[in-house]
Design brief:
With 187 residues, the chain is an alpha/beta fold. The chain contains 7 helices and 6 strands, in the order ββββαααβαβααα. The protein has a domain of 116 residues.
Length: 187
């Protein structure tokens, strides 16, 4: 982050693409709920990806675009995306930070892609997925020294909510300061 810049540049709509490593943070007893990545064959430069969750094809994963389609999409929206998969999936946090530096972004607020739509109807599976996602992003936040922040997964049970309130970047929110145990939920 540029220490001379009094107004940091914040990308408040940065998505993170969940990957197999996301689920490495599950409790041993919850590993039976681990999502399985699925992929359709490439058509017209696009390879669709999905998750098998709780026995059903669910969960949203961004399509993998060819280089040509990626360039076109970047031109359409007027911004440069993280092009390398390990940066999009945050397998390499330093690479993501390097991309941010190149584009003049000081902080990114990361949003999930997995929970854009409901992933499961079973609370135990939902809690396991959300806990693992939140732990994964907490690890990324630490590695980024606070530059990669995140909105917690929208579900995850009360015990997850209490843990989330202890994370430093969430303590600053008004709900967290006032003890709202549900401040992590999307409204």
């Amino acid at each position: 982050m540029d220490s001379q810049n009094k107004n940091p540049v914040i990308d408040a709509d940065a998505h993170v693409v969940e990957c197999a490593h996301t689920w490495d943070f599950m409790d041993k007893s919850e590993e039976k709920y681990r999502p399985i990545p699925l992929e359709a064959r490439e058509e017209a430069g696009v390879r669709q990806q999905f998750w098998l969750v709780d026995g059903k094809v669910r969960g949203f994963r961004f399509a993998v675009l060819s280089d040509e389609l990626m360039a076109k999409r970047q031109q359409q929206v007027g911004r440069k995306f993280a092009e390398q998969q390990e940066s999009r999936e945050l397998a390499n946090v330093d690479l993501r930070l390097e991309h941010m530096d190149q584009t003049g972004v000081d902080i990114q607020v990361l949003h999930n892609t997995m929970f854009i739509e409901s992933c499961t109807d079973r609370p135990a599976v939902d809690v396991a997925l959300c806990k693992s996602w939140n732990r994964w992003l907490a690890d990324i936040w630490k590695q980024s020294e606070g530059r990669l922040r995140r909105l917690p997964a929208p579900r995850g049970g009360q015990s997850s909510a209490r843990r989330l309130l202890l994370l430093p970047h969430l303590r600053r929110s008004p709900e967290a300061r006032h003890g709202d145990r549900h401040s992590h939920r999307q409204r």
